[in-house]
Specification:
about 120 residues; mainly beta; 7-stranded mixed sheet; about 0% helix
Length: about 120
């Protein structure tokens, strides 16, 4: 059974940091791209960061470039999202998603597997 479980969300002040984790089971990252999406109330789900399965290329939304870093630990089958210099506009539920694809897409229907989400709240 394929499963993605996020953790690491919480409440942090502006300028603070959090590290989200996405633990995968039922598959490996060898042939699965992993993407982080987020969704704030009243807004559509948006892609934040992605790491491909081929050459570990990483991609970031313009709004998080230079502040967020995606990485993966194949031994632990876990992907991380290090979030620094957090801003109130980063407040959202963060989801990790995956599918057996080599490249990344910002289009949510592209991915079959989703975690349950973890809440990130940045206070001003």
């Amino acid at each position: 059974e394929v499963q993605l479980v996020e953790s690491g969300g919480g409440l942090v002040q502006t300028g603070g940091s959090l590290r989200l984790s996405c633990a995968a089971s039922g598959f490996t990252f060898d042939d699965h791209a992993i993407v982080w999406f987020r969704q704030a109330p009243g807004y559509e789900r948006e892609g934040v960061s992605c790491i491909s399965s081929t050459d570990n290329s990483t991609y970031y939304a313009n709004s998080v470039k230079g502040r967020f870093t995606i990485s993966k630990d194949n031994a632990k089958n876990t992907v991380y999202l290090q979030m620094n210099d957090l801003k109130p506009e980063d407040t959202a539920v963060y989801y990790c998603a995956s599918d057996r694809v080599t490249e990344c897409s910002w289009h949510p229907p592209f991915y079959e597997y989703w975690g349950q989400g973890t809440q990130v709240t940045v206070s001003s």
